[in-house]
Write a structure and sequence with these properties.
Layout lengths: L6 H9 L7 H11 L3 H4 E5 L2 E7 L4 H12 L1 H7 E5 L3 E7 L4
Antiparallel strand pairs: 1-2, 2-4, 3-4
Helix pairs in contact: 1-4
């Protein structure tokens, strides 16, 4: 069983500034704490990244998703769709610095 994300980890996701840092850094961080990442975390692409997050109904992953939603810039720019059952899809193109 995966461990639950800590409050500081969740706050880090919420406050992560994609205008000053690489969004890939945030994605890598989410992957590092995602429960069952071998099947619930999928990342494809090079210039444009396609991220799939599947919670598997696990509350720890649901908490991570809620923190991503609170990162309004990330969610507003990259979220594509969510499907009932904890399936979330993102299309990510890095911001020009």
């Amino acid at each position: 069983m995966s461990r639950y994300p800590t409050e500081p980890e969740l706050k880090y996701i919420e406050k992560f500034d994609i205008t000053r840092r690489s969004v890939k850094e945030l994605i890598d961080y989410v992957k590092s704490i995602w429960g069952f990442e071998n099947w619930g975390f999928k990342l494809k692409g090079k210039k444009v990244l396609y991220l799939e997050l599947h919670t598997g109904g696990w509350s720890g992953n649901e908490e991570i998703l809620q923190s991503l939603k609170k990162n309004y810039l990330f969610w507003g720019m990259y979220w594509e769709k969510s499907i009932k059952g904890g399936h979330h899809y993102f299309k990510i193109k890095e911001l020009k610095k």
